[in-house]
Amino acid sequence: MLSNIWNTILYQPLLNALAFLVSIIPGGDVGIAVIILTIFVKIVLFPLSQKSIESQAEMSILTPELNKIKASGASKEEQAKQTFELYKKHNVNPFSGCLLVLIQIPIIFALYYVFFKGINFEGGLLYSFIHVPEHINMIFLGILDISKKSLILAILAGVSQYLQAHFMPKPAPSSNTSGPLGSFSESFAKSMHMQMKYIFPFIVAFIAYSISGAVALYWITSNLFMVGQQIYVKKEKNFKIVIK
Q1: CB 140 within 8 Å of CB 33
Q2: Among residues 148, 169, 152, which one has the least CA distance to residue 160?
Q3: Domain extents in the chain
Q4: What integer best gives the mean pLDDT of the chain?
């Protein structure tokens, strides 16, 4: 049941979109189709991911004020009240970023799965109005075979993941160094950020190399799009909330 829903709502439409793109791209370059489809999906998800990035940035900026509330010595009820008023004052929902990310995950994973499973249009999943492309060229730009492992693309996938983590909103330094909870949360946030920036790129590169060049190309395109989006959001909003 769940597999049928997955195929009907997510996997099958993306596979058909890829087949359509391959059929209209001169020479049937699958690599170009992978890039176009990835960008298209990211554009569709742009409003959601933009809100998620903005929410992360706003929460990062509000961290010093939240730490002041924690360090005030007020009761838990009073701290909760002040925290709620701070969120309301700046129109910030601390859970919106997580919810928006959860909405995007199935779509992003379905797109990844299309490339992970291999470019195969013979499985009977194409719609009646979508024909199997006459020319399926797995040699990206006539240089790299994306149906096989590609060390070059795997390295670029890792580098793009590093850049994506580099431009993520960074956790704000805590002003509360005396409380154990404050210091723990700050250390945890910094640790996660460091792992995303310096360890996860190697994991991405390893996975991309282990599967195929198509997956690596998807990762590169997705990460570079996110880098551009993060820069755009930062420029538009300037990542500033005026604390009065």
Answers
A1: no
A2: 152
A3: 2-237
A4: 78
